[in-house]
From TrEMBL:
It comes from Svornostia abyssi. CDD domains: Heme_Cu_Oxidase_III_like (cd00386). Its EC number is 7.1.1.9. It is found in: Cell membrane. InterPro entries: Cyt_c/ubiquinol_Oxase_su3 (IPR024791), Cyt_c_oxidase-like_su3 (IPR000298), Cyt_c_oxidase_su3-like_sf (IPR035973), Cyt_c_oxidase_su3_a-hlx (IPR013833). Belongs to the cytochrome c oxidase subunit 3 family. This is cytochrome-c oxidase.
Length: 203
């Protein structure tokens, strides 16, 4: 009788994976939760100025104003990128590779336009005397919008990779997690901007 073959497993045991959620999706959701906490810290400083500090004013004050209209148009641009991204996601699920390519390209261009407008806004405000070091309101304004801008920049890098892969035919109706997971991040960035825009520019 032949001796039983024994297989030895070297190294640590394989990670236990839940069948209910994809590891990449779980990782993205946990990352977003941590980022919400980071934004929460900045919003705490914002509400401290608005509510706690006696006599503190938010924009407009002392002749300093924020470009609410320009930021509103920029908000529409960023929200439009969520629509084009959704179109791209739906397209690849239906096997429409052309829709995926066009949708991803438009999403990237709209996101880049948003960031360009925001940088131009910073340059204009700086010339008008609204700088991070001028007063607490400026520090908080640049902190909140700059933090969001950094997330947009990271998102654009991710979108660029997804777009390049889309044009190379790396996605299919059965394999499109590479579009879905980055899409969750980009939608988070868009939702976070609505909160930032509403609190900083409107309230």
């Amino acid at each position: 009788m032949e001796a039983a073959t024994v297989h030895h497993h070297h190294g640590p045991p394989e990670a236990n994976r839940s069948s209910r959620i994809h590891p990449a999706l779980l990782g993205m959701l946990l990352f977003i939760i941590s980022e919400v906490m980071v934004f929460g810290a900045f919003f705490t400083a914002y509400f401290f100025i608005r509510v706690v500090v006696p006599g503190a004013e938010w924009f407009p004050f002392d002749g300093f104003e924020l470009p609410v209209a320009v930021a509103g148009v920029n908000t529409a641009i960023l929200l439009s990128s969520s629509l084009t991204l959704h179109w791209a996601q739906v397209s690849i699920k239906n096997g429409n590779h052309t829709g995926l390519k066009v949708g991803m390209l438009l999403t990237f261009l709209l996101g880049a336009t948003f960031l360009f407008v925001q940088i131009n806004e910073y340059a204009t405000l700086t010339r008008e005397g609204i700088t991070p070091q001028a007063f607490a309101q400026g520090t908080i304004f640049y902190g909140l919008t700059g933090l969001h801008g950094a997330h947009v920049f990271i998102g654009l890098l991710i979108l660029l990779v997804v777009t390049i892969r889309a044009f190379r035919g790396h996605y299919s109706p059965d394999h499109h997690d590479g579009v879905e997971v980055p899409g969750i991040y980009w939608h988070f960035v868009d939702v976070m901007w609505i909160v930032v825009y509403t609190t900083v520019y409107i309230l």
